[in-house]
Each structure stands twice: as structure tokens, then as C-alpha cells.
Design goal:
T-fold, binds magnesium ion, 2 domains, four-stranded antiparallel sheet, binds adenosine-5'-diphosphate, 26% strand, alpha+beta
Length: 358
């Protein structure tokens, strides 16, 4: 468990896609900042108001609870039990069933670009145990026969998988955690906060001076430079979730292989995008702790990264879900959908060209 002092953390607040925080202008408004290492990432909770400390530590507890519930490597987790059940039905509980149902909805909506049954393929590339390797085409072809929503059966609070099929909620877990934390912030009447779960940010309320939170989009070409941004979002009451191939990858034979897999090929998605940021409103009335907008943003950021620019924009234009996009392409363009254009600030001298699409 790691909890660090607020002063130290203020300096860390521009890492990746994270809420950038400033000292409060109203001295009597308490602010609590904690850093949590969980779900394989660095999380920073910056919360304001009378109950800020309470809300931060409740949020930490919630993230840790979800981590042990959903872990793919902790043998005790319900997901590990399901994955090793050899086809038998397991009582996974209402919450996990709800999350699996949400995942299935996004699998169907994205025509399979998001698919939690990609787990055995992710493992074959060594991303689960962090022992990376390039699997053979034969191995991938065999594993792909186990991928698809038809291999999951849900009944009541029980789930069963086709023998050999496994699930991996890594593409949705942090988004769901952000939905859960939104509920904690609401219950504790937190007026403003930034919750940064790696590439998942919840900008809650506005800054103490009444202006929007500034959320930087990491420059995928310069992933280790916390001050290199492909753009800046100015957000109030919104989720912003980024997926990119630059976060987790390995190199073999001069090639780079990252952790977002295209379920159509079994290979790391190679769609011409270097990152996808999905932005959607966090409507206080709709915050109820169930998988909702945060979960949607996380699932869609993964899926649209797999789909590539053209299909991602078609999906956005379909209007099926209410969100906006910032796409960063391999050929150094930043494509912003018009619903978020007024909240987007270009990064001067970043080398990117910018376009707004409708
Ligand atoms: P991150 O978790 O790094 O923020 P994502 O939300 O895009 O990034 O999720 C990537 C994770 O989701 C991978 O580490 C893997 O566990 C899982 N995953 C990889 N490809 C897919 C996919 N096509 N559909 C669903 N989950 C995926
Ligand atoms: Mg995701």
C-alpha cells in the first residue's frame, strides 16, 4: 500500500492522461491527494471538500477490492476461478455478471473489436505473466477458435465458459473502477476532484477557480516524457479514457508488439492509430455505481484503437453512444470530433497537424 504526501504528488500531476491539479484558491477548502499503485498502474486521486480524505481512502479501498475481484493472475479471484473451471458454471456474483453483460454489449456493438475472451491470446503474447514472446500463427489460429461472445454463458449470477476459453477484463476494469469512484464522490458530496487511473481520468466538477480541469493527452511518440502532449482537454464533469500501443509493448526481431490485440487476427492491432481518447459527460444524476459511462469509455477506447480511424469515426457518427474522440495517427495527425473541439487545445510545436471532423 503506497500513500504519499500531497506536496510531492502535485509535481506528478501531469503524467500521461491525468488531471492536472493546482493549489486551491480558497484556503478553507480541504484538498487530499493520494497515490495508489493498483491494477498495474499509478493512480492519483485528488479530491476537494470537507470529506476529501474519507473519499480518497474509500476510493483506494474500492480499487483494491476490484483488483482482487477481477485479477487475471491472482488465483483466488473469481475471474481466475472461472477461467480454470474447465467449462463448469461458477457463481461469479451479481457484480461480475453485470460487468460481463456490459462487456458483451460492447463486443456486439463493436463487431468484436472489444472482446474479453481475447484473454488466451493476450496470454500467448506474454502480456499476462509479463514474459513476452511472439506466438506462432498455428498457436494463434487455435486460440482464436476460443474467442467470441458465443463462448460465454450467463445465467442469473452464474457464468460458464467453453473449455479453453478465458476472459480478461483488463480493457474495462479501470473504467468500471472510475464509475464506482464517481459513486463514492457523489455519496460524499465531493464538489470537485480529478481521479486518474492510468489512462482513465474522471474530471469531477471544475477547478477551484471555476475553470475546467486540464487533462493532457500523452504524446504517443514521446511516451516517457510526462510533459509531451498531443493536445490538452479542458473538461468539467467528464470521463476521458485513452488507449494506446505505446503503454505496454515489447520488441522482438526489430518489431514492436503492444498489448491491444485485434481479435480478428490475434496480432497487436495495427490500424494506423497510436492512441484513442474517448471523452463523455459524467452526468451526476446518472451516477449509481453500476457499469456506465466510465466503463463505456474504457471499452470503446480499446475497441476504436483496434478499428482504426475510418471505422472509429463511422462508429462515432452512428450515434449509438454519446461520446467524442481524439485520435492520434501514426502519420502525426490529431483528429478531433466536433463535439469536443471547443474543449480541445492544440499542443504548439508538437509536430502534429490538427483536424476537426463532423
Ligand atoms: P490499459 O488497460 O493499458 O489502459 P486498455 O483499456 O486499452 O488499456 O486495455 C488493454 C487491456 O485489455 C490489455 O492489457 C488486455 O488485458 C485487454 N485487451 C487487449 N486487447 C483487447 C481487446 N481487443 N478487447 C478487450 N480487451 C482487450
Ligand atoms: Mg479500455
Amino acid at each position: 500500500m503506497k500513500r504519499f504526501a500531497a506536496a510531492l504528488l502535485a509535481a506528478l500531476m501531469t503524467v500521461g492522461l491525468c488531471g492536472c491539479s493546482w493549489q486551491t484558491e480558497s484556503p478553507d477548502e480541504a484538498r487530499e491527494v493520494i497515490q495508489v499503485i493498483a491494477m498495474d498502474t499509478v493512480m492519483i486521486f485528488t479530491t476537494y471538500g470537507e470529506k476529501s480524505t474519507h473519499a480518497d481512502y474509500l476510493s483506494e479501498d474500492e480499487v483494491r477490492r476490484l483488483e482482487s475481484l477481477l485479477s487475471r493472475t491472482d488465483g483466488e479471484s473469481v475471474i481466475c476461478q472461472l477461467n480454470s473451471a474447465g467449462g463448469l458454471g461458477i457463481d461469479v456474483g451479481e457484480e461480475v455478471c453485470g460487468l460481463m453483460e456490459a462487456a458483451e454489449e460492447y463486443t456486439l456493438a463493436t463487431e468484436g473489436a472489444f472482446d474479453i475472451t481475447i484473454a488466451p491470446v493476450v496470454a500467448a503474447w506474454g502480456f499476462t505473466e509479463k514474459e513476452n514472446r511472439v506466438p506462432s500463427q498455428k498457436e494463434l489460429d487455435e486460440l482464436l477458435t476460443l474467442v467470441g461472445p458465443e463462448h460465454i454463458t450467463l445465467a442469473g449470477d452464474a457464468a460458464a465458459l467453453t473449455p479453453g476459453t478465458q476472459i480478461d477484463l483488463g480493457g474495462i476494469a479501470k473504467g468500471y473502477a472510475s464509475d464506482r469512484i464517481a459513486e463514492i464522490l457523489k455519496e460524499n458530496s465531493i464538489p470537485r476532484a480529478t481521479i486518474s487511473l492510468g489512462g482513465n481520468v474522471l474530471a469531477w466538477g471544475d477547478r477551484p477557480d471555476g475553470t475546467p480541469w486540464r487533462v493532457g493527452i500523452q504524446d504517443p511518440q514521446d511516451p516517457n516524457n510526462a510533459n509531451a502532449f498531443a493536445g490538452m482537454l479542458h473538461l468539467t464533469d467528464a470521463f476521458a479514457v485513452t488507449s494506446g500501443g505505446y503503454q505496454r509493448f515489447f520488441e522482438a526481431d526489430g518489431k514492436t508488439y503492444h498489448h491491444i490485440i485485434d481479435p480478428a487476427t490475434g496480432y497487436p492491432a495495427d490500424s494506423g492509430l497510436t492512441s484513442v481518447t474517448v471523452v463523455a459527460d459524467c452526468d451526476l444524476d446518472e451516477v449509481d455505481g453500476t457499469p456506465s459511462v466510465g466503463t463505456m469509455c474504457d471499452a470503446l477506447s480499446t475497441a476504436l484503437f483496434v478499428m482504426g480511424e475510418e471505422k472509429a469515426l463511422d462508429f462515432w457518427r452512428s450515434g449509438k453512444y454519446d461520446f467524442d474522440l481524439v485520435l492520434v495517427t501514426e502519420d502525426s495527425r490529431v483528429v478531433v470530433t466536433d463535439g469536443i473541439a471547443d474543449e480541445f487545445e492544440e499542443s504548439k510545436e508538437s509536430g502534429y497537424s490538427y483536424e476537426v471532423v463532423s
